[in-house]
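Cross-check.
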Amino acid sequence: MEPRIQYAQTTDGLNIAFWTLGEGTPLVEMPFSPFSHIQLEWQVPQWRSYHERLAENRKLVRYDPRGAGLSELDVADYSLDAYLLDLEAVVDQLGLEGFALYGSFSLGPVAIAYAARHPERVSRLLLWCSWARASDAYRSAQAQTLVALREKDWEIYTETVAHALLGWSAGEQARRFAALMRESGDQEALRAAVASASEFDVTALLPRVNVPTLVLHRRQVPMPGLGVARALASQIPDARLVLLEGASLAGYLGDMESMAAAVDEFLGEGEEAAAEAEPPEAGAFRTVLFTDVEGSTALTQRLGDAKAREVLREHERIVREALKSHAGSELKTTGDGFMASFSSATRALESAIAMQRAFAAHNASAQEPILVRVGLNAGEPIAEDEDLFGTAVIEAARIAAAAKGGEILVSDVVRQLAKGKDFLFADRGEVALRGFEEPVRLFEVRWEA
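Predicted model, tokenized:
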């Protein structure tokens, strides 16, 4: 069955088409190049089999970039930062807190940039026949010929590129790929997108890629050469280089199984290591934590969508680090807030304090301070579909809403569970919470060092 096409909106207002396939740990497969059409790809049997193979035992996410395929075509900005907005829109729409990222060929530099800037979200990075600096790949005589063709005859250019990239023996597959290239979007827009990608250079970011990285390359591909792959792997800390046999840049052609097996082995290591936080048992006693950024709506109106999103990303980074270091399970995020659960009230309180101290350190030098409300409650919520429901959860959300920015408020249940520990509580008295008939006694946690 053909995957359902969905849409995500970028912070600069563009609609990005994507689909998902399978269940499990997410693998986000970026477009191969500015030429992309996720619906037409699916109609190619070999390409479909390739996606189905990658989706075995995991959730595969595939999207069209701006200006191509089923995404918005009326686009002026094809910069590397603009392509980052496409990726960000899709992962935010799906609420992916952590995922493996798969970048290939000319948009590989976008994957490198995202992994370097967001190590808290990227669990593993795969790079297929790609580079950090486009000029390294475009140095060959064959590449220079393709550039010249691009400006003169679009149809001959697409046919030549398809055969050069997929292999001169690809025949019908290359012709289909050339047709897909031409159907991806407007000729002039695609030409501008390709020209922009041919100037990407993220070499300076390579030392900052601090996530496990696999550089996959086929020995006989004409562009980029083996030297480019070796240089890429050598400049990323602890990156692994795997060389496969074959002359096609298309993973779905040639020895697809060897390529897929290398991906499985690499991702399998990460999936085993990531199985720390188990979903709560039904009826298990949990401490529930909510965060909420004070004044997030006003922040967006004052700064605009893009700048406000940068501020909220810092909020997400701080919260996720505090949850991870105190064995908290992130259940959902609303963009300006989180819901998480803990098996221990002590760990939940320690996590909340770590958050507020991290925000205070950030605010000391930040142009835009982040003031966060934190609320905690404990009980036996209903566990369903990796989420929690019930009165204990609702009360925790209402407690967070009663706090001020920079405060941690908890119910008396949480205070009692933490008795004898080194926490300081201030009695805030009984507070009327929305939706609850009787007032609830709340306590403020004093977190200043």
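The chain is about 40% helix and 20% strand. The CA atoms of residues 153 and 159 lie 10 Å apart. Passed to J.P. for a second look.
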